[in-house]
Structures are given as C-alpha cells and as structure tokens.
C-alpha cells in the first residue's frame, strides 16, 4: 500500500508541524490560529509543497473540525443562558450586529463582489472570537471584572445569531431563490426555536439519555449524535454547523461537562486541521492584492467593536475605564470568521474572499489581544490630555464613579444578577 | 448579625462569579469556572470595576484555602500542635482505589499505622466513628488522626489501586 504510506507521512507531518507551531504560539503567549493559517498558506496551492494523498482526508477533517467547534460552543452555554441573555441584552446584540456587520458588507459591495459575498463578509467582520477573548480575559486577570459579563453576553448573542445567520448563508451560497431561501430560513428558525424550547424544558431528559458513566460510551454517543444531526441539518440545507451547535445547546449538566472534557482534544485536532485546510485552499500570491482592503477593514471594525463594547458597558452602568476595556476586549476575530469564509470558499463564490478573510483574521487575531490590553490606558491618557475638550462633551459619568449608581436605563445591572443568596454554611463543597 | 450575602453573576461559557462585600466595604469575588478552577479577585477602592489582584487556584489549592479560611474547629490542622505531635487529615478515596466497596476492617489501618479514622464524609453527610464492618466507597473522604508518620502511611494504604 504505497499510497497509504504516503498519506501517513503527509498527514503525520502536518499534525507534527501543527504541534510544534502550537508550542511556539504557547511560548509567545499567542493564539495558535494565525500560525495554523500560515502553515496552510505555506503549503498547498501555490505554496512550497503541494499535498496529494492526504488532501481528501484533510477536507473531511476540516468539516468535522467546524462541526466540533460549533458543538463545543453549544456545550459552553445552557439554553437558559441563551434565552436569558437574549431577553436582557438584545439591544447590545443589535448594536453589535449593526456596527460590525455593515462595514464588511460595505467593503464587499465597494469591491464589486455582489450581494452574496457582502452577506458573507458581513458575518466575517461581525462575529468576535469567543475562544481568543475568553483566553485573553483569563490571561489579563479580568475574569472578575465588572465589565466581563457585558463582554460575555455580547459573545453569547453573537453565537446565537450564528444559528440564524449560518442557514441564511447556506441558502444564499446554494443559490436558492427567495422562496426556497425563505423556506430554509423558516425551517432553520423553527428547528432552532424548537431545540431551545426542548432544551429549556426537557434538557435534563436529553442529557440523561446521553449521559453515561463510561467515558468511551459517552464519547461515541455524543459524537455520533452530533455528526448525525449535523448531517441531517446539512441535508435540510440548514448547515451542519448549526445542527452541531444545537446539539451542544440541548446537552446540559453532567453530560455536557463530560462531553466537553472528552471532546476538547478532538476539537483541538480537527479545528487545527480546519485552519490548515482553509490556508491550503488560499493561494498565498492572492493575499497581497487584498492586503489593503483587509487592513482598512481591520482598522474600521476594530474601531466599531470598541464602540460596541463601550456602548454596551455604558448601558450596564460600568465606569468609563471599564467601558474602554470592554471595547478593546471584543476586537479579536478568529475561528468563526474563518468558518463563515470557509463556507463561501467551498461554495466557490468570489475567489478573493478567502484571501481577504485570511488576511483580516490574521490581523485581528494578533491585534485583538493588544487592544484588549492597551485600549483603556491609551484612552485614559488621551482623555487626560484633552480634559478640557472631554469636559465639554457630555459623556456623563465621571471616571471612577460608583457604577452601582443607576445610569439612566432602568436597572440594567439587576438583569445580570440574581437575588443575592445568603451564604449560610459551606456544606456544598465538593471534593 | 445578618447572614453574609453573596451575589451570583453568571458568566456564560466560563462559570459563575460570586461577589462578597465585607463589613469594611471591600469587594471580593470568586470566579468559579466549570472545570473546577477558581479565580480569587480583589478590587481596589479607586476603580471598583477592575480586579487589583486575580489569582487562579487549582481545586486542591482552593480546598487548602477553604480550610485556612474556615473557623478553627473545621481546620484539619487543629491537632498539629508540636506538643501533641498529632495531626488530623482528610484523605480521599479514589474511584479506582483498591478499597472501593471493601470493608474498613480489611484495610487493617489501625494495626498497620496506629491512626484512628474518626469520621467518613460521604457526599453531604458525615458518618462518625465508622466500625470495622463499615463499607467504603469511592469518593469517600476519611478523617484520619494520628502521628505524622502514621497518617502518611495511612494515606499510602488508602491510595492503593
């Protein structure tokens, strides 16, 4: 079996290379995503070393990678998280969508790529990277900060929006007409609504069905169920990724916890394969022509994300410093921008879209952690320098004002917090 | 003196944040990650939104910290005074332990090490002074009292797979 030997050598080399890159990223305290993308760019079409035998497997692995990414995202949240956030934070979600999706759409139209590409690029610039952001928050020691729930709830809403957005994209890319597209969307929304409802009402039962003390069985059941649902969703033109996301939402409690631990390594492997695959299908020589639009888009949408975070934090009664921090934290884009662009690339619309998305994500995945760190100090410095001007503009709350004080909007802070619970005895300790 | 009140804030995708405001009006919070990690945060007075200190704790470190924070009668090191030469410790029985499902008498703990098992903590309740016919189960926590060497030996016995 000569070809299988070649396949093993190729695929092994890819995985080993990714592992080494991941270690390098860890040492640099960086997200490994840009390195994986660059690795993909370096090989494949127009790169140093075209891959042959493992091409097909990498393509399937990439698809599984997307499914696992979305499944894990769904596992992160409970259905009540989603519904609760939707109820209290939807204005922030709308502002976020409007401010960040429109620049992408505008850029695609400016470049003359047509409406479908515009919708795709809107998604690329809209969705922040929850993975990168969660890690940055932990690294900067900001998990306990008051603005953190605001940042997280925006991420939740974006992820929920993905469940609606991906079916639309899938329908558009499939070239469905208005009637067929609307039907698809109706099905998608109906299914998503139904799953959310079932998960809120009967989440325990679903989880009990899946739950198993034996890790092996749990792994097989969850993975099998996810792939099956993803396949059916794909067949219904709803998009496999959304099916996987909904499976993740439907699982809660112990089953979700166990599945999360078991599937993490699998997700890491296949997601890395997915990023490489995306890079493989992007010709490095096609990046320089789109570098300027990508840079412009990165600068504009970094600004709009900062504005979004600032606005949402202000709405939640956070002081000025916290608002800048929230804004800067939201800038990073990553895996999901690539997922969205990947759908477009495999559908074969606008050939420059892939390279543009690649360049854009590379820029923002690197800039994002920096804006998270430095937006607030820089903004504080500037406002101090232009203090007279700032005093003239009526931004309202003074720096360091007690954020507990109501800020116009009726008690937004209560929406985040349950009633304080009296803590009597600490018997609820687990070992 | 009313009960101390802690407020909960869900952090979707990460866990829950518990906030405590002390009588001296200082803020503390604990972010409870769903993977069992805990992050302890304190806030400075001049920017109440930002953590001035944020320390990540492993589950074991959290345990140790809880023991240190508990009023003294909960402290496992209650007896570890030099003049007594005795220590009390919690030893957890893993699910894969040899003694999972066996009798306490089978461990021959007292004969081998000279320690006493004063209680077994199982889920939310404690069984005081378990006899030799007490059946152990994985996940039990044994409260063991004895000399330093004895307790260490007892831990080795209980850790057998």
From TrEMBL, chain A:
Ranges where the record places region Disordered: 394-431
Chief site of localization: membrane
Alphabetical UniProt keywords: Membrane, Transmembrane, Transmembrane helix, Transport
Gene3D superfamilies linked to this entry: 1.20.1530.20
Membrane topology classification: Multi-pass membrane protein
Family (UniProt): Belongs to the monovalent cation:proton antiporter 2 (CPA2) transporter (TC 2.A.37) family.
Residues in coiled coil: none
Protein name: Transmembrane transporter
UniProt KW Membrane keyword: yes
UniProt xrefs under Pfam families: Na_H_Exchanger
TrEMBL record, chain B:
Lineage, uppermost ranks: Bacteria, Bacillati, Actinomycetota, Actinomycetes, Kitasatosporales
Listed PANTHER family: K(+)_H(+) ANTIPORTER SUBUNIT KHTT (PTHR30445)
Top-level lineage group: Bacteria
Residue ranges of coiled coil: none
Alphabetical GO biological process terms: potassium ion transport
Residues in RCK C-terminal domain copies: 76-160
PROSITE patterns: RCK_C
Recorded GO MF terms: monoatomic cation transmembrane transporter activity
Protein name: TrkA-C domain-containing protein
Organism: Streptomyces laurentii
SUPFAM superfamilies in UniProt: TrkA C-terminal domain-like (SSF116726)
């Amino acid at each position: 079996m000569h070809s299988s030997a070649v396949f093993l050598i190729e695929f092994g080399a890819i995985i080993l290379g990714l592992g080494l890159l991941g270690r390098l990223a860890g040492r640099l305290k960086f997200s490994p995503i840009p390195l994986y993308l660059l690795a993909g760019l370096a090989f494949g079409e127009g790169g140093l070393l075209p891959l042959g035998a493992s091409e097909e497997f990498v393509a399937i692995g990439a698809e599984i990678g997307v499914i696992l990414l979305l499944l894990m995202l769904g596992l992160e949240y409970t259905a009540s998280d989603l519904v609760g956030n939707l109820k209290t934070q939807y204005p922030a979600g709308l502002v976020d969508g409007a401010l960040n999706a429109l620049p992408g759409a505008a850029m695609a139209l400016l470049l003359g790529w047509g409406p479908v590409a515009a919708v795709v690029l809107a998604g690329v610039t809209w969705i922040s990277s929850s993975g990168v952001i969660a890690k940055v928050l932990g690294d900067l020691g900001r998990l306990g900060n008051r603005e953190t729930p605001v940042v997280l709830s925006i991420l939740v809403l974006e992820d929920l929006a993905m469940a609606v957005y991906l079916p639309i994209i899938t329908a558009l890319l499939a070239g469905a007409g208005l009637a067929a597209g609307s039907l698809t969307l109706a099905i998608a929304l109906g299914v998503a609504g139904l799953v959310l409802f079932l998960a809120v009402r009967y989440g325990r039962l679903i989880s009990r069905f899946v739950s198993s003390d034996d890790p092996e069985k749990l792994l097989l059941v969850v993975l099998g169920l996810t792939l099956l649902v993803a396949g059916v969703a794909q067949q219904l033109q709803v998009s496999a990724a959304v099916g996987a996301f909904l499976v993740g939402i439907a699982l809660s409690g112990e089953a979700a916890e166990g599945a999360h631990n078991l599937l993490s390594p699998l997700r890491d492997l296949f997601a890395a394969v997915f990023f490489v695959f995306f890079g493989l299908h992007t010709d490095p020589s096609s990046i320089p022509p789109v570098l300027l639009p990508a840079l412009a888009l990165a600068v504009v949408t970094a600004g709009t994300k900062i504005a979004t975070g600032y606005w949402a934090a202000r709405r939640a009664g956070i002081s000025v410093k916290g608002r800048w921090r929230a804004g800067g934290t939201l800038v990073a884009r990553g895996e999901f921008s690539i997922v969205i662009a990947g759908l477009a690339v495999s559908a074969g619309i606008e050939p420059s879209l892939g390279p543009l998305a690649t360049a854009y994500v590379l820029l923002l995945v690197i800039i994002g952690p920096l804006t998270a760190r430095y937006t607030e100090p820089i903004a504080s410095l500037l406002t101090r320098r232009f203090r007279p001007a700032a005093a003239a503009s009526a931004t309202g709350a003074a720096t360091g004002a007690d954020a507990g004080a109501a800020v116009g909007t009726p008690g937004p802070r209560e929406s985040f917090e349950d009633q304080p619970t009296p803590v009597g005895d600490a018997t609820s300790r687990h070992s | 003196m009313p009960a101390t009140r802690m407020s909960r804030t869900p952090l979707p995708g990460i866990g829950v944040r518990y906030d405590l405001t002390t009588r001296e009006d200082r803020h503390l919070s604990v972010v409870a990650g769903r993977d069992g990690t805990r992050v302890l945060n304190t806030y400075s007075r001049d920017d109440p939104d930002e953590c001035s200190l944020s320390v990540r704790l492993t589950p074991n470190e959290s345990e140790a910290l809880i023991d240190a924070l508990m009023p003294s009668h909960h402290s496992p090191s209650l007896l570890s005074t030099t003049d007594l030469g005795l220590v009390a410790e919690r030893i957890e029985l893993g699910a894969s332990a040899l003694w999972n499902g066996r009798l306490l008498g089978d461990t021959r703990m007292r004969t081998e090490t000279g320690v006493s098992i004063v209680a077994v903590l199982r889920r939310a309740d404690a069984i005081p002074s378990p006899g030799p016919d007490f059946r152990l189960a994985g996940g039990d926590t044994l409260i063991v009292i004895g000399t330093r060497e004895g307790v260490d030996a007892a831990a080795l016995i209980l850790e057998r797979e």
